[in-house]
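User: These chains co-purify. Model them together.
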Amino acid sequence: MTDSLVRARNRTRYPLILLRAMVVTDFKLRYQSSLLGYLWTLLRPLAMFTILYIVFVSFLKIGAGVPYYPVYLLFGIVVWGFFVETTTQGLASLVQRGDLLRKINFPRYVVVLSISGSVLISFGLNMVVIVFFMGLMRVPVRPAILWLPLLFLELVVLSVALAFILAALYVRFRDLNYIWEVLIQAAFYAVPILYPLTLVPTAWAKLLILNPVAQLLQDARYAMVTPETETIVQLYGGAWAYIVPLGITLVLAVFSVVYFKRQARYFAEEA
Amino acid sequence: MTQPAISVSGVSKDFLLPHLRQRTIKGHVLNLFRRRRILEVQHALHEVTFDVRPGEFFGIVGRNGSGKSTLLKIMAGIYTPTRGGVLINGRLVPFIELGVGFNPELSGRDNVYLNGALLGFSRREVDAMYDDIVGFAELQDSMDQKLKHYSSGMQVRIAFSVATRARADILLIDEVLAVGDAAFQQKCFAHFEWLKEQGTTIVFVTHDMHSMKKFCDRAVLIEDTRLVAEGSADDVARRYLELFTPAADP
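Assistant: Joint model of the two components:
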């Protein structure tokens, strides 16, 4: 091997070892003392689904026009859950590991990535449940499903970028967790998770869909569950509108790297 | 002339006093309206310069609050100096504390793997040395218990046992030896002696002049954020003790 190759491998070796150890630890800690253990990863979104289904479908008849609405709803909850868990747990991650930051010198980004990693594993398990439900309800699989990996990539990039920014900010501003909690609560209703976008006046729908989470969720539902869902392409009559949500995602991603790098050397003093 | 193992040149470190630091948004907003921002700076280190030669057992001594632990953290790359810089030649491993990252909710076994990862060992590497680690700590029967059920002595033993595996050219040690009983301290020092014979550079922060004189080749004395003495362990130990005797000058 050439010298530079060896060096590149040595540089990534330590972060990878750490990342793996932290993800494993996080997963073990999260479920080890609960009776049902890992099952909670699946039971939590299912419980949430049941509640929302009873309230909004049985009583308020909101999803009546949408085919396969239960899968449509569950899928929305799981995607939203990933976004919420990655950002809220990411936000607290650096401060929680302050002890570690003060005592050894290691790449700080590993802390945030390890959280994202363990949330991603839960997300993967949840997707298995969704595929199972799709089979149960005989949802037809269409070629559009091939878009799914790209949409998940957008979801991961967006969530992890926000996690990095929030984590670095939280080291300085300890009010941020409360603010973020409220924002997340509000966003839950601003993203078409439980209601179909068709229920919203078009002008509002056009605004809501510019949120990257809303855009990718609707696209992912289109790809996976049913073509009868409003996506950004249908609302704007063309793909050009993607420039807003994708632009937001890209800007956040670049900013997160720059900002986190700049702040990282002060984490040991401030976390 | 060989390159120094560690070269500390003109290092200063200022902290903003924690209780005055604005940690809330409210604090920041209020600050915007104040004409003069209240920023009290605490100087933790002032223009510290010295070299550690390869293979040396090097002591850093000073009273509480003198800045010696800050210096160690800067050498370890944990803090960024406000001014000046540190050059390191070789792989440096800091032991600011034994058992960093230990989690009381995990078993002894899991903690060994986690701590090993922090030292840069992959799972497979820890697999290979696992029996030795447990054997050295003499804890064969308790590895599947959670760490919180260990006595503090047991925790220190397993932590130290993992730590001895670290492959380093330079070791930074911060009063690790303050913990554990006499037999354990004996074991620690025996290990450090062995490392020294292997050519490892060791930087050792301590209050204990007895062990300092016994092990260190050279040392520096930090007093009130400045380096006030540098030289043989005996000289520096004498200067340190003088700090506590009131000046007898007429």
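Residues 182-197 of chain B form the longest helix (16 residues).
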